[in-house]
Structures are given as C-alpha cells and as structure tokens.
Amino acid sequence: MALQKCGLNRNNKNKELQPHGSLEFPCAGYESTHTNAICDFIPWHWHEEFEVIHIVEGSMKLQVLSETFTIHEGEIAVINANALHCASGDPYCKLQSLVFSPLLITGNVNSAFASRYILPLISCTRFSGIVLKNKKASASNCFSIAFEALKNDAFAYEFTVREQLGHIMLATYSELEPQQIVSCIHQNINSVRVAAILSFIEQHYPENITLSNIAEIVNVSERETLRCFKKITGESPIQYLLKYRLIQSASVLTEYPDKNISIVAEECGFDSPAYYTKKFKEFYLCSPREYRQVHQAVF
Description:
Distance between the termini: 28 Å
Structural class: alpha+beta
Radius of gyration: 20 Å
CATH class of the largest domain: Mainly Beta
Oligomer: single chain
Shape: globular
C-alpha cells in the first residue's frame, strides 16, 4: 500500500476531511519534511483517527491544546483521536506518520480491546498527545516495522501494521496512569475555548476582528480570553489572526497569479496594502510580489 500524499483539507471546525486509508484498511502512511518557517507550519487541525509520529531526522515542535512537546530524532509521539494539534520543524525535521482508525486496533466497539484500553484513552481529556519516553526503543522499532511494511506493500502488511500499532497503543496506555485514564471525565474548559476561537478566526479572518469580538464568542472577558489562548498556543488571538491571514494570502498569491496584490490583501483582512506588505516581509522575508515570482518559478 503506497504512502498517501500529505495535505490538509479542513472544514470550518478545523476537522481534517481527507480520508486516511480505506474502509477495508483504515490506516495511511505519510512522509514529509518541515522547517520552522511560517510557510512550513502545519496548522491547527484534528481528525477522528489516532496519529503516531516518528522523527527520522532533526526535531519537531508539536502543540496540542494542553501541552507543547519537542520530539527529537528517533522518538515516537502519539496524538489522541479528536485532539486539536499543530506542528513545525524545530528548526528542521523529517517525519513519518501513521494515521489510523481506532477500529483497526479494536475490531469493533464492543471488544475488550475497545472497552478496556482504546475507548478510555480516547475519552481521557488529559491525553491529547504523549512522547513515549519510557519505551522509546521498542516503540521506534514497532513503528519502523509497521511503516516499512505499509510503504513497501509487503506481503500481509495489514497484519504487520495492526500488530505493531497495537504494541504502540498498549505502550501509550501503560505510560499513562490507567487510573488517571479511566477517571478523565471533565473536559478542559481552556481547550474548549481555544477550539472555539480557532474556528471563529478561520471562518471570519477576512472580516474586521477585534479581541472584543473574540471574547464574545467564548463569553468571557478580554483579559481571560487573552490568558487562556496564550497559555495554550503561546501567542495572542490577534497574533494568531495575523499569522493565519498571511498564510492564507500566500496561498492566494500562488493560486491566482494574476490577482492584484492589493485585492489579495483586502480579501485576507488587511485594510492597508502597505501594512500587508510590511507584515508579509516580516514573516516571509520577502515581498508578496517576490514570493509570487519565486513560487511561480518553482511550480
């Protein structure tokens, strides 16, 4: 089974819409490289599947709504199903990942695998992601066996992948405290607020958005909005809004090479073309025009 092409297609709630694998075998493999440049940023998104990431080279910064991890070469990270996350190189990484349905491990929702291990993991709101430190070598070995079998379409790779991912998920369960997993019944209110803010920004970024508008969405004060968003993401809502507008504008510049740059700026939420160009240069280290020329030459 060949690796799938990387790419994020999200709905207005940041859910990734790309299918991972097939109904017959709900697992997909990916391989990509990333830097800490803004154009390489993997934006906030979530999917119903688990994701296991293996860093082949370099280091990666992984953010979930409750924590930030630095994953080094040879390490394995596991992201929970339905967990909002984003990532970037730190400053560079080559990664391999397997994204798979919980049903690949459980078989069905009524099995002992589901009721005793996988469903408690999914429902544990304190588990958004984890780096497997205690069983680094064995988890890395399990991942490599699974990934190579999938990538090379090895004989009976389905059995191999399911078995090795089962070992990784058991290691995940074991590394967390089982009592803590079972007792996770209260959802983190900060995570709920930040998810709502991200969804609002990414639906309304072309509009005139203020911190007051954002605070109204989560029904708290501006100060509390700033506090909880910055605590989880490391930046203010307005900083995230600016970054998101610039990323969207860069996509428009390359997808519509004949569109006037002033129009691009306006459509992406910038009142002033001069301000847009200034901020674009700060993020991309080149002007919008230069960015468009370089990417036209490449593609």
